[in-house]
Amino acid sequence: MFYLYVVVVPSARGIYMSFTDWSAYSTSRDFVGLDNYRTILDGTSGDALVRTVVIAAVTMVIQNMAGLLLALVLNTRLRGRNMLRTLIFAPVIVSPLVCGYLFKYIFAPPGIGAANDFLGAVGLDGFQRAWLGEPGSALTVVIIVICWQFVGISMVVYLAGLQSVPAEILEAAAIDGAGAMRRFWYVVRPLLAPAITINLMLSLIGGLKVFDQIYATTQGGPAGQTETISTLIYKQFSTLGAYGQSAALAVTLAIGVAVLSLLQFVVLRRQERNA
């Protein structure tokens, strides 16, 4: 009963509202069918949808590659590895808004931002720019923020997987003449399949619903070039008062996350069984 009132009823009401013209400028809530959903593929909504998928895909790849590399390095007898693990994981427990504002000031315009000051100090003045004021670089900064904050999660999951690999198997492979790369690919990688599945799913879902980092750094700018579905939902609801369109975007995002996550899970589980 609790689940019904807390989850099912609000979700059903939100889905219904996505088929209406409910807004802050009208007292009526007329049924408009699929009109709100048709507008999603037009203009800024369509661009935000594509951009959301691109951010999710890029961050998923970078986060997992960096996380696996860090896990492989920190799984050795490296001196001070425990401190390094802590430092890399630390951003995970920090608020995404705080991380976003931190990078907003790091990449602030010349004379303010630490990144531009560093470039000037090493004689690379020509590379100084308003990082968050240009479409290409602003999107790059957003991706950097997401990967920097959450690479620690991927690293920890991969570390757990690596530490569960029996040392005897690796020793046997080494005795048989397998080099480091062959041992990783034919011995370690198949045993890491569950960790790979978990990390890919977590990073994909996180990338699809990213909001805080973008809101803190660019608020969807410049000129909407870092707008995602999540930031557009917020803008449609709180700024424009288009509640029906905001609900349609939210339903679309929820369905997209569910479908992509399910497809990814099915594919990765099949690969686990074949590993």
Which tags fit this structure?
flat, MetI-like fold, 275 residues, 0% strand
Structure overview:
There is one protein chain. With 275 residues, the chain is mainly alpha-helical. It has a domain at 50-227: MetI-like fold, CATH 1.10.3720. It has 13 helices and no strands. The protein has helices spanning 2-17, 35-38, 43-74, 81-89, 96-106, 114-121, 135-163, 167-175, 180-191, 193-208, 212-217, 229-239, 243-274.
Offer a concise description of the structure.
This protein has 275 residues and is an all-alpha fold.
Question: Any chance you could write out the topology, listing elements then pairs?
Answer:
Blueprint: H1 2-17, H2 35-38, H3 43-74, H4 81-89, H5 96-106, H6 114-121, H7 135-163, H8 167-175, H9 180-191, H10 193-208, H11 212-217, H12 229-239, H13 243-274
Helix pairs in contact: 3-7, 3-10, 5-7, 7-10, 8-9, 10-13, 12-13
C-alpha termini separation? 42 Å
- Let me know the average pLDDT: 85
Any low-confidence stretches, pLDDT <50, length ≥5? none
The CATH class of the domain at 50-227, by name, is Mainly Alpha
CATH architecture of the domain at 50-227: Orthogonal Bundle
The largest sheet, given as strand count, sense and whether it forms a barrel, is:
none
Number of strands: 0
Helicity, in percent? over 70%
**How would you spell out the order of helices and strands?**
HHHHHHHHHHHHH
Distinct helical segment count? 13
Determine Rg (CA atoms, Å): 23 Å
